[in-house]
Amino acid sequence: MRRPPTLYVHTPFCRAKCRYCAFFSTPVGAKGVAPAVLDRHVAALEAEARVLAQNWREAIGPAASLFFGGGTPSLLGPAGLARVMAVVRAHFLLADDAEITLEANPESATPELLHTARALGFNRLSLGAQSLDDRDLAALGRVHDAQAVEDAVWSARAAGFDNLGLDLIFGLPGQTPTAWLATLRKAVALTPEHLSCYGLGVEPGTPLAADAAALAALPNDDAQAEMFLSGAELLESAGYEHYEISNFARPGRRCRHNASCWRGEDVLGLGPAAVSTMSLPPNGARGLRWTNPPDLNAWEALALAGRAGSAGREELSSRVRAREAVMLALRTTEGLDVAAHRARFGENLPDERAELLDQLGRAGLAKLAAGRLRLTRDGMLVSNGIIRALEFEE
Asked: Among 202, 207, 248, 393, which residue's CB has the most CB atoms within a 10 Å radius?
């Protein structure tokens, strides 16, 4: 049975661009979003939501998840956040038990903002901590310190958030496995329900990529592997389930929005750079995807002209969707449901890749059991290579 699409709203504003960040965002400085800029942004969101809700009205039902990402959605402030939420609720239905997530940075997660968010229906907070070491935070170009992370956690609890996630990055310049484990212990002491732990990526065009000294200080592959493996062991011993390569959660607290993405389910995205994917009849094996312009003015012009969903538009063949399904499923500890994959795409990986799967099994990198193909934790270390060999190499 086809599920209604989840909803994603991209807020493009941030206080300052971090040294490692390649995501689309527009720095607005310490004063925040100017009123005229916010007015135009909300008007464009309204226009985009109206068109998408009309174009996909037969597919849309009560959404199980709504995710405000960015950028820094908390920079909208209480009034701005209320305006954006009003746009969403005016055009889309949310399930009674919907997971409604707000991404926030510690410095803008003020008590007023957090209390407003709870009153608006947000029930999950994803806090961009990135580190709990002041030296690492400065090296990353973050505008907050470790104390601000702790303060934001306590403010979130006081506002009534009982589902809190922290984002962290490992593999930083000069970081050792011992230092990473110390950061994780500090994070666990803050008792979040969810932890996302990402390996640092050096993206072309970022200040980090141009910093020769920082690049020379990056941990080697062995050290990064140790951080991943020992970090996962530490978090599991603290009661967190390792449910996706980079994600850990208390039982029952897995991020519903991200889990939906890893299952390859439909999503409607609003805002600049947001990506939408919708299944096409009869069985959803094919799909339609569009990507909004990663430019604030270009996206606003498109939305205000009533042309939402017309940019970066492509039809996804069954073959492309099958490849994506394998890629996404193998990131998770649940793995790929082989029978369901065969029924949807007509592809039987155990037969078609029998020799490769045998090699992966003997190497301790993957296992096929109870109808599911899964990567082991060692396999997750080289997941990109395994996925490429399974689905992207003819």
From this structure: 248
